[in-house]
């Protein structure tokens, strides 16, 4: 039987675990309307990017940047977070099976504080949380996922990455992990070239099979 202590599970947050991508698209479309970036459909282009990268790429003017951040935080503060179907059960089952779980999110510590208010038990399900404040390079760079694997003492090739954005699946693939694309934020055909499998919902996944996939990748 495979050594079940080899596997690691690395989750993106928005659009994978919590139902927030549509809200973020709406928020960024509103921000782009109030503070035109010059980029059409900005809300689609920035998916998976850290706030710093978004600001550096689309709001180089400091005064405008300050206003954008202020407005963004105002709109974020009104958001309500809820688990996506299958997310809570998958996380808790992996936890019961003593599997290490890491959250790798482009969100910063300010947003995570708001998430703690909405779903206070979520943080306790992870062995480590990689936020935008802990990395220097945004997805599709693999830095966040490589750091997550390192923090739980796992080889990245024995880790499974769960992502919904094009930037995210590219990051997971570049890191060397087994990548599961979660369709919804992006269509299946957009994720497929950079994912090992694409699913419509986390409900479809069986934790024991995931552990087997992860542990047998290097055997």
Explain what the structure shows.
The chain folds into two domains: 8-19 and 82-215, HAD superfamily/HAD-like (Rossmann fold), CATH 3.40.50; 21-76, no CATH class. The mean pLDDT is 91. The longest helix is centred in the first third of the chain and has 15 residues, at 62-76. Strands 3-2-1-4-5-6 form a six-stranded parallel sheet, with helices on both faces. With 219 residues, the chain is an alpha/beta fold. The termini are close together. The protein has ten helices and six strands.
Number of strand elements: 6
Name the overall outline. Answer: globular
Order of strands across the biggest sheet? Answer: 3-2-1-4-5-6
Q: Tally the helices: what do you get?
A: 10
- Rg (C-alpha, Å): 17 Å
N-C termini distance:
12 Å
Query: At CATH's second level, what is the architecture of the largest domain?
Result: 3-Layer(aba) Sandwich
Mean pLDDT: 91
Number of domains: 2
Helix content: 40-55%
Q: CATH homologous superfamily of the largest domain?
A: HAD superfamily/HAD-like
Q: Could you tell me the strand content as a percent range?
A: 5-15%
The structure class reads alpha/beta
Low-confidence stretches: none
| Biggest sheet details | 6 strands, parallel
Order of helices and strands: EHHHHHEHEHEHEHEH
Kindly provide the name of the CATH class of the largest domain.
Alpha Beta
For this structure, the quaternary state is single chain
Q: What fold name stands as the CATH topology of the largest domain? A: Rossmann fold
